[in-house]
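Final report, closing paragraph on structural work. Over the funding period we assembled a curated collection of sequence-structure pairs, and we close with a single example.
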Amino acid sequence: MSKLPIDVPKEKLQQVRMDMFRKVQREKRAKKRIVSVAIVSLFCLSLLFSIRVSPTIASHIAKIPVLKEIVLAIGRDKGIQDIVDNDYYEEINVTESNKGLSLTLQGVIAEHSGLVLYYDANASFDMSKLHLKEVQVFQGDEEIKGGGSFTSNSSNQTYISDSVEYSFSEPFAYTSKDFKVVFRFYEKDKGNIEISIPFSLQNEIAKEKTFTANRTVNVDGQKFTITKIRRSPLKMVLDIEVDEANTMQILSFDDITVEMPDGERRVNIRNRPIGKNRDGNFTVYLESNYFHDPESLSIMIGAVHAVPKGEDFIEVDFATKEVLTKPDYFDWDISVTQQDVSVTINKRDQGKTLLLTEAVKEDGTELDVKGINVSRDAQFVTETTQFGDYDGKAKIYINYFFNPIGEKIELNIPLK
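Its predicted structure, as stored:
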């Protein structure tokens, strides 16, 4: 069978090659200098600008280990594309090794709310049982308070190209630009493997741009206010306050999108759910438009879902394994086993999972959530939440229920 032709924009690639050739020539300090891995990486990075021109090129570049993760990030998030386009992504290219594992910190994106660290790794041993257990970030000798989000292990991995999203617990002051990241792995034969990589930032850290919107929306008598729009290189944040006088409990906002005057849109960040406080206020995380300064933004909300106030939870007794109370509208099967609560839902009745991730004990203290498992068949979805050890009664809050009280809402907010 003949191969399909690949449409490669040759003229664009030739221009990229020429630009990079000139850059290398300018930076040469000796005629016999060997072109470093960093320059090769920089050359490859320049090809990223072809991604939106040719998906074929993007798919091929994604196979290059050093570029795979940043290419995938650009494909997922337009804000990351803006960061690369505006030279805010910082190349590090520092490699350290331990016990046969070699790890390269390829680059960093830094802002007041966190860091994204792009890295790759390979080993002289079989990596299929290698697990990343912990990541710590230090400024000087002091550990930065926060938490890292990362992939622990990929099945049958022979090479790692991934990222760590390290979120600070509070806005961070960059009193020094000298840092260290510590990766802690475990492999059954090698045991614990720790790799520490120092790095320094060169860019000025971008300051958050905050706009006070105070735009109130009335949906079927239920009010909420978009109070602030906060923008940083990694994300755009909408702060939403819910009116205390509402008779319904707003549970969620579906498909929130921000559109700029030129028609380009920013959507919810993948793997970053809408934050919700028990007082009903929300934090919406969207792809960043930090490097744009539009005169206005259009905020579009696909749907607002709400249930009667005081009916946004189920109550169970872990001691007797019983369901004590549930809302009248909640007619699905619920089972309580050990520290698990399972709900079986008919797919046609519910668009998303319930997200039973918040619970309180009888004394009002928080009940820990250990994990969530979702299984599906042709007709039903079963969502099982595992809670921490507890032998008593608990309220488990429903964070999503398909009951739209308003749909296709659009707001135009002037920023200047």
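Residues 70 and 297 are 28 Å apart (CA to CA). The chain has a mean pLDDT of 82. We thank the funder for supporting this effort.
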